[in-house]
Amino acid sequence: MTLDFMPWEASLEAVDRSVPDNHLFTFRLAAPLSFTPGQFAEISVPGIGAFAVSPAFCRDTEVLIACIRRAGRVTSALYTQDIGARLGIRGPFGDGFPLDAFEGHDALLVAGGLGMAPLMSLLDALLRRRDRVGQVTLLYGSRDPSGILFRRELGEIAASGEARVLFTVDFAAELPWEEGAFVCRVGLVNELFSEVSLVAENTTAAVCGPPAMYGCVLEQLAGMGIPAQRIFATLERRMKCGIGQCCHCVTAGTFICREGPVFSLARLRAMPGAI
Ligand SMILES: Cc1cc2nc3c(=O)[nH]c(=O)nc-3n(C[C@H](O)[C@H](O)[C@H](O)COP(=O)(O)OP(=O)(O)OC[C@H]3O[C@@H](n4cnc5c(N)ncnc54)[C@H](O)[C@@H]3O)c2cc1C
Ligand code: FES
C-alpha cells in the first residue's frame, strides 16, 4: 500500500537517544507499509509540518525505525514528543536501491555521516539474502567516534564476519582507534578504498552521504573499474509532496522524489548539477 496524499497515523513507540542529535525513532504504523531500502516516507508532526526520512530497517511493515537528525523546525518538534504521541506518515515514495543488482555480485557500501541510515537498511537486506550476494564490505566515515550510528548492530555484524566493516573518523584522540570488532582509521572515507581488495567488474556499490562526498567518491569507484550502471547513490533534495506534484525536488529536469532518490552513476552523469 502507498499513502500518497493523506497522512495515516503513526504513534511514537520508542526513542533511542544514545547518539546526541541523531536519535533512533521507532514509529508504530496504523497501516502496514512495505519499504525498499532507499525509499522514503514523509513524517508529519501535527500543527508543525513534515519532513522526508528513509527507514533504517525495512523488516516489519507495521513498524518504521528511522535515525533522525535534529535539523530544523519539524525534526526539533519531533524531539520534544512524548512516547505515544500521534504523528502522521505518508509513503513509501520513490525508487530505492535495486536489490537485484547486488545478486551474484560483491557489495561495497560507502556511507558518510547520516548516510549510514539508508545504508543500514540496505546492509540488513543484503545480509538477509546472504546466499545470493557475494562478499559484503561497509566503509563508514563519521565525524568522530561518538557520532557512529548503529554501533551495536555494526559491532555484531563485524564480529560475526558476515560483512567486513571499516570505519574512519575525522577526529579521534588516539590513532588508530580500536575497540572490540571495530577498527577505525582517521581520515576521509575514500582513503579506506586502498584497504579493500575487490574484483571491480563483479562489484555493485551503494553510496550515501553528504553532497561533498559524492564529488570524489562516485568517480573514484568508477575509476577502480566498477561499472557506472552498478554504482548507486541516493540524492537528498528538499522534498514536499514526495509524488511529483510540487516541483520542490526537481533537479536537471528530473523529479528526484519520483525517479529517485536512488540513481546509478550512469544516470547521474546525464543530470548536470545533480552531484
Ligand atoms: C529522500 C530523503 C531521505 C532523508 N532521510 C533522512 C533520514 O533518514 N534522517 C534524517 O534525519 N534526515 C533525512 N532527510 C533529511 C530531512 O528530510 C531534512 O533534514 C528535513 O529538512 C528536516 O526538516 P526540519 O523541518 O527539521 O528542518 P528544516 O527547517 O527543513 O531545515 C533545517 C536546515 O537544513 C537545511 N536543509 C533541509 N533540508 C535540506 C536538503 N534537502 N538539502 C540541503 N539542506 C537542507 C535547511 O536549509 C536548514 O538550514 C532525508 C531527506 C530526503 C530528501
Ligand atoms: S517533492 Fe514534490 S515534486 Fe518532488
UniProtKB/TrEMBL annotation:
Tree of life domain: Bacteria
Annotated PROSITE patterns: FAD_FR (PS51384)
CDD domains (alphabetical): sulfite_reductase_like
All residue ranges annotated as the FAD-binding FR-type domain in the record: 5-99
Pfam families named in the record: DHODB_Fe-S_bind, NAD_binding_1
InterPro entries: Cyt_c3_hydrogenase_gsu, Dihydroorotate_DH_Fe-S-bd, FAD-bd_FR_type, Flavoprot_Pyr_Nucl_cyt_Rdtase, FNR_nucleotide-bd, OxRdtase_FAD/NAD-bd, PyrK_electron_transfer, Riboflavin_synthase-like_b-brl
The name this protein goes by in its record: Oxidoreductase
